Every structure is written in C-alpha cells, then in structure tokens.
Amino acid sequence: MTLDHRVPSLTRRERVILANLTEDATLEQIARRLYVTRNTVKTQVRSVYRKLGVSSRAEAIAKANEYQIAD
Predict the structure, then answer these.
(1) Which pLDDT tens digit goes with each residue over 40-62?
(2) Burial class (CB in 10 A: 0-12, 13-18, 19+), 19
C-alpha cells in the first residue's frame, strides 16, 4: 500500500478558512471576521476537510502543518 503525498489543491478562500481554523475561533467568529454567514463557513470547512481527507479541526490543522499550506 502506498500513501498519497500530493498536496491537496485548496482555493484561496479555503486557505483563508484553514488559517482561521488554526486559531481558537468558533465558526460564528470566523464568519463575522470574513463577513459571511456561519453556514457559508461551515460549507467551506466541509470542503477543506474533504480535500484534506480529514473529519475534524485537529486533523485539518495537522494536515495543514504536514503540507505547510496554512496561510
């Protein structure tokens, strides 16, 4: 079995969302900071998780560090 080590292709906005996830901010706080709704942030977070192959904030942060992709 081989591991896939390609860096996931995240959009600019997904990178912004990922960077905000590294802070200890709620989705509501991130939404206010980015002038969007909480549901928009939630959708973008799900997209980031899917692209990174993770299911939690902690895993997303670990992957971001591994791939060095957080802004």
Answers:
(1) 999 999 999 999 999 999 999 99
(2) middle
**Mean pLDDT along residues 23-29:** 94
- Give me 31's structure tokens: 């939404």
Return the closest-CA partner of residue 18 out of 4, 32, 5, 30: 30
Task: Please give the model's pTM, rounded to 2 decimal places.
Answer: 0.85
Q: Which residue has the tokens 């977070």?
A: 45
Whether 52 contacts 63, CB under 8 Å: yes
- Torsion 65-66-70-71 (CA) sign: positive
